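Input chain follows. Return structure tokens only.
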Amino acid sequence: MPIAPGTWGSLPPMVILGVMGHLGMTPLGVAIVMGVLLIWGSFVCVALAPAAMAATGNKDPGEVVADELAGQAVCFLAVPFMAVQSMTAVQIWMIAVSGFLLFRVFDIIKPWPANRLEGLPNGWGILADDLMAGLYAGLCLWVTVQLWISA
């Protein structure tokens, strides 16, 4: 996608989480699916990013979006710890959209140490900053949902 490729790369985990919630997937099922997306996105990013970097001359080519897929999956690994079985499908979609937006914010602003991690060599730098953004977003999402549930 020529416009906002990172946003497009982050969408699949959000949609998958929303659909899983809509279908009543268990927390363990959510964790397994997000874990698979994390591993697959990480592997693809580290394996293929160096070739994309060489071809484009860019240290973080927009053509590589597997890092966003993996980072968004990290964010949603927090979801099984949110009492999702007692939530409605609409509430799960709200969590999915909120987690997506949080991840995009952290991925764009890259707070410390994410901004330092992108300096790692080859595809590791491309991946590591997104994993850190996913961790930040997942923590914020978890805290927000805990406050929402207790309110």
